[in-house]
Amino acid sequence: MKKTINIAVVGLGKIGSYLLNELNSKKKDIYIKTGKKIKVVAISARNKNKKRQFKINKNIFYTNPLKIINDKKIDILIEAIGSSDGISKKIVEKALKNKIHVITPNKALISKHGDYLAVLAEKNKVNLEFEASVGGGIPVLRTIKEGLATNKIKKVYGILNGTCNYILSEMEQTKDSFANVLSKAQKLGYAEPGNPKFDLNGYDALAKVKILSALSFNNKISNSKYLMEGIENIDSKDFEIVDQLNYRIKLLGITEIINNQLFERVHPCLVKKNTYIGNVNGVMNAVILEGNPVGESVLQGEGAGPGPTSSALMSDLLSILRGNIKYPFGISDNRRKKVKIYDMNKYSNSLYLRLEVKDKPGVLSIITRQLAKFNISVQRLIQIPDNKRKTASIVIITHEANELNSKKCLKSLKVNSNILKAPVLIRLF
Amino acid sequence: MKKTINIAVVGLGKIGSYLLNELNSKKKDIYIKTGKKIKVVAISARNKNKKRQFKINKNIFYTNPLKIINDKKIDILIEAIGSSDGISKKIVEKALKNKIHVITPNKALISKHGDYLAVLAEKNKVNLEFEASVGGGIPVLRTIKEGLATNKIKKVYGILNGTCNYILSEMEQTKDSFANVLSKAQKLGYAEPGNPKFDLNGYDALAKVKILSALSFNNKISNSKYLMEGIENIDSKDFEIVDQLNYRIKLLGITEIINNQLFERVHPCLVKKNTYIGNVNGVMNAVILEGNPVGESVLQGEGAGPGPTSSALMSDLLSILRGNIKYPFGISDNRRKKVKIYDMNKYSNSLYLRLEVKDKPGVLSIITRQLAKFNISVQRLIQIPDNKRKTASIVIITHEANELNSKKCLKSLKVNSNILKAPVLIRLF
User: Fold this and answer.
1) CB interface of B with A, residues 341-400, below 8 Å
2) pTM of the predicted model, to two decimals?
């Protein structure tokens, strides 16, 4: 690798412009650590004159990022646009084909097209780095690929979405409603002001789970069945109840191998208050890896925001500047296993169920009969009457119950006229 | 680098022999990840016929490790003997001078001779890797050097000695004495059966602190003044009292930069029960890094034992096999700053003091007068009488008090005939 490295930054939103400032202010530090001089020779965004936190050099500005590759000699391209397809995919594709290293924090792109792009990178003998796509500033991907390189990893789980974790922590503390807390999160910049759907429905966490699986288990990225539930339906009532039972509610992403099959999932969980994961609050992210021989490893840090994300992007940059070509997913594409998906209908788990019912004789017996019919046994049952409305909340913690059976059971309860709302189900962790 | 890499393992205690088994069983995995075939061509220990957990190949056994380097063509030497000088230092020195990469978990060696050995490695263009020297299986050194490469780190602290953390956790839970818990720890293999002194007096944790400082702040390893206190004098009585005050006792290693000066210390601390560090129990280690722009990063994992240590040694091996030469401390020796040591006498901290006194009028006034004389103000005072013995425990939580003043004050109290034992001092975190 030559001594001066030309860099292009494509996408100048919060992350892109923060990174640009980091690149400029840390040139000397980078030279000391790698012996390489970096030079940002091109930048691109949709709007040249938009107000940004940091000034940009308009002389090297491109509206069309694809043009950069024709015009300039680029060594490393940093893609910070952030969509799974469209121009994000096109520019990364074009860069790799032109033997340009690529760095991206784009989990949507990597979780969808990562396999294809990794093959492109390998074929063209360049690096494709995406540390910032999972866990913000937590260097979890590098830890899996390098720090725990020869461990056999069995399970990875964690809190992977800071927006959801903030909302859940805040709902717990303030007893406020989902809608109110969400709008507060939006005001504070912890949730997308426009459309926070992909954070709230679990999609963002699931994209990260897919990337973690691929690295941890050396498989290709999965794209078929999964269990993805968000936090939109969690009620402040649930927080009150689980608090008394000594639980907290967390949105977890979990991936593990069961009988050589991959089981990935994202859903809210009840976690005990005195566990490690039960005490990761606010916008923090945390990843727990269970490996052999290392045992349990925990990584925690700020999961989002321009600062932590830039930290991860810079670590990718330094890794490339140090000079060797690495497989994007740790091993060559032809060694990566095809995914066999675990049938989640076979899975069993303890459940928290909350049913809002008419407070009249016989209702409880209907419910318990249905549970028995679907082989779901009760570990704990609490009935909380609302005398004014003549209704009651029935809260049930079940013993381990089969997924398929619980689905069927809930469906059967939904149509019962004594049950006033769709039952709430949260899995225990 | 050629395709087949010759390895020598020197030191076949628990760690060395476990590692040897890992090397043999993970050859294929290593080949897949790095394209290199490894071959263990020499092993060495004092006793060829000692019973070990894993069988060794006696045909490649050396009693004198120095002979290996004359006899065989070695590419990578793994030193797992573990002393700070003597044969450990000699073999590492000789290997580096012969352009052989070195991997070692030996914190005593690195914290004492790391600067010198790093220069040797740099001059001979080989790697000197010591990930396993801090935090067992937690890849904390690699995280500082690579994952958080361009962050400005301000402070690093954590639980760095699993033996002490086990003993403190166990004393808290069982209310048992230090001596009893220590002997239990020795039976369980959590403390050295012979001489656990270097774990208990803070020496082991301090060695790790010095390595962490060097990597985090780009300074040479410090070797002058420090604050090193162990856990030998902590009494089960203290656990009872701090429990009521909502604290736990943890042995922390802390390093930070204050006014461009390095302040390293290891001592027991009172930490709030509801903090992250207050909930790292048993043999777990944890390291917290405060950096900019990444924010707070936490790494937690099993801090000792052959499994986690081997995991770290293997990550070093893979890093070397991937092929480039890295500075042992992240930057070239001539860029590493000389250490300026912070004068700890200037430091201020809240203190927990426990004094065992004669229960008679006037004693409390003597104590409070002394405290006032040394400018130490009381935040909270609890007197616990022991009516049978006509003694009392006086527990004081102070406001921030200057180190030098507190030292002088304790000295003055020690000689007072109404104070029956040397006062106990634990710093608040």
Assistant:
1) none
2) 0.92
